[in-house]
Design brief:
homodimer; DNA-binding
DNA sequence: ACCTGAACACCGTTCAAGT
DNA sequence: ACCTGAACACCGTTCAAGT
């Protein structure tokens, strides 16, 4: 005898995101998700293969939000947007590269950066440039969040110095083959 | 009646590093460490506050090895050394910023980068420059390891393009206040 | 003074039994 | 067709009891 569903994949992923942000990766347990969703833990396995798959769904939903918040034509706009996203959702941001989001989701997030780079350096050098800028922004934000910048100096202005250096270097006519 | 020690903090940390590299963070359990060290799990608590503290000791030992392997005067030398360290000890490299190594250990690792930057841009801009270069290198290596570069193109040459761009930009007379 | 067995609370996951 | 209680193997951690 069929029973009306008491939850949904969407609700499960959404609960997972809230719990991750509130309690960190250690707090994201099957039990915690089940409880928030109004069900017992074993029921989650009807909708999700295992905890790892749930974690990946959370990472995917997060990178998709990141992509949405990435607007503005310049590299500075994009870098600033990425940093403020990370500040409001630090755990989710971390999960993106910790767990590994799906290739499609990563490709979508790359689009705005690639476009900005194409404008600066042209089609041929755009991919390398995008990788350099994304690596820098991701590295800076991650190091900042983990408290790795401890040698003094202003961190906001270090971020500005980085984006200035990169933008300026990519705006130049071109140096070497 | 005192008993001769059956293990040591050093042996515990060393076992932790081996296990982390061999089995990943999920495999680094108190039980696994105890067994490799020839003792039962509860005994570890005589030498280590808890699992988290053990994890931090492992991260510290790893960043200290990283520091040792960071030689060469140019930023390219340092970036290449960092990448090859990460390739031989991926799990340990990840743990450095995941768990957060100690401020002193991070400061020691920063020294060679700071020195190379001082040569290029002078004392005043050295810290910002070091942060930009380190962020880029760390971000690139982390993204590469997590399989985030999926849009084609050669990854080695993207790494070269990054280090070229940064070195070149930092070598220039100076652009703006 | 270190080591251990036993115990506790908590994981993730499976599965037969309920509706 | 979904949901659950019970069960399993495995965590991290504490502590009284051994030597």
């Amino acid at each position: 005898m069929p029973t009306p569903d008491r939850t949904s994949l969407e609700a499960i992923v959404s609960a997972g995101r809230d719990i991750l942000e509130a309690s960190g990766p250690g707090g994201l347990t099957m039990n915690a998700v089940a409880e928030r969703v109004g069900v017992k833990a074993p029921s989650l396995y009807k909708r999700v293969r295992d905890k790892d798959a749930l974690f990946r769904l959370v990472a995917d939903a997060t990178i998709s939000d990141l992509t949405t918040s990435l607007h503005g034509p310049t590299l500075r706009d994009l870098a600033v947007a990425m940093r403020s996203f990370a500040q409001t959702r630090p755990q989710g941001f971390r999960a993106i590269f910790t767990t590994g989001a799906s290739p499609e989701a990563i490709a979508a997030a790359s689009e705005p950066v690639l476009r900005a780079c194409r404008n600066l350096v042209g089609e041929e050098r755009a991919l390398d440039a995008a990788r350099t800028v994304t690596s820098w922004a991701y590295g800076f934000i991650t190091m900042e969040m983990s408290g790795a910048f401890q040698l003094g100096g202003d961190i906001d202005s270090a971020f500005e110095a980085g984006i200035d250096l990169l933008t300026q270097a990519l705006s130049e006519p071109q140096a070497r083959a």
